[in-house]
Specification:
five-stranded parallel sheet, 10 strands, alpha/beta, homodimer, five-stranded mixed sheet, 238 residues, Methyltransferase, Cobalt-precorrin-4 Transmethylase, Domain 2, 21% strand, Cobalt-precorrin-4 Transmethylase, domain 1
Chain lengths: 238, 238
Amino acid sequence: MSGILYLIPSPIGSIKEVDYLTQSNTEILQNLKYFIVESEKTARAFLHYCGHNLDDNLNFIEYNEHNFNKINIDDWLKILKSNNSIGLISEAGTPCIADPGSEIVLRAHLNDIEVYPFAIPSSITMALMSSGLNGQKFSFHGYLDKNVNKLRQQIKILERESRLSGYSQIFMEVPYKSQKIFDLLLNTLKSDTFLCVAAELNTSEQFIKTKQIKSWKNFQVELNKKRCIFIFQNKNYF
Amino acid sequence: MSGILYLIPSPIGSIKEVDYLTQSNTEILQNLKYFIVESEKTARAFLHYCGHNLDDNLNFIEYNEHNFNKINIDDWLKILKSNNSIGLISEAGTPCIADPGSEIVLRAHLNDIEVYPFAIPSSITMALMSSGLNGQKFSFHGYLDKNVNKLRQQIKILERESRLSGYSQIFMEVPYKSQKIFDLLLNTLKSDTFLCVAAELNTSEQFIKTKQIKSWKNFQVELNKKRCIFIFQNKNYF
């Protein structure tokens, strides 16, 4: 009998945003003793906020995208195979999606360990459903190129793909770059391309708008330091 | 002052699965009088289950992916512009994602109507985070080709893309075809390609497993009539 690897999202912004855990998931979380985390300190704060009693018997294995191959995989597989469950908590957001963790999950599958995702709202899904752009076929590109010239080229290629294949093109950026990326999109995409900006989703600051580039140019928006998801598609206007 | 277009998911399986609505979303839902729905009958059953009192003053506009251009857009824009909010409810699942609705949302944006998505768990996100496959970059293809020969070719192209670009390839299928598609994947994908089957997510029947094709061939699984999300990626094994 093996334990279960639970995939546990942590809040992206304020820790007080933890209103997405169901009662049953909260109970599971409160009973876990073993955790694989990016940072023990922030994981402890999150667990405390979720009502975990944080007794002395908790065990944390720290990992991040750089040290995965250095942490002792046999250690946490042994824990799971001894019928103890483990919670995988990412630093901010959903483990494995635009965040590290997938190597751990794959290793669990390959060792016949059950994987159980907490049911949580997904900002990518919420942005896409609210965009009015194609939700039947889409590509998520994570973070785009850091080099501005390459980035501009990448955006043009993705725009062309959206025209040819109909796929919505979704990407994220770190908050301090949001305004810069938005300005670059306005100067790079075609005037008739639709761009959706979905900022600070599921918070009181939520802002979601889709406009053609030519309309965005006449619209004032302040995205500085806002957590944004960008979606664009070049398509016929009905 | 305009009303808001609320995007409201309905349960895919049994109506009793509506445990994902937050208190604030439930209150919004119970106060809505206008709805754009795929079917009035199932929308009424859903609203009843969510505690809506269903008085005589409710208004339903029926739409589906085929009649969007036939329903009178001016009618529902007039409702919104008169400071009445509208709930957009899809027949089963999340409006606009692998479901109709995006044309309505886009039309709302272009008329400066605020769009507000209910925060709901996404089966695509839950499947992907649980797969152990690439969650940094992925493509969702909706439903693949119906023609078996074209489907086989499409799967091979997507598998090659996953190898070259690293993108996880995600698609869905209608439940009665799940077993057939699974068998076809086993016979079409390369033996070292990783395939994740995520069935009946967020229900007591939940089944999530990722294996290489050669391992799936030695594993018994019964997917007949199960709601499945399939994800595959050809990648190096660590």
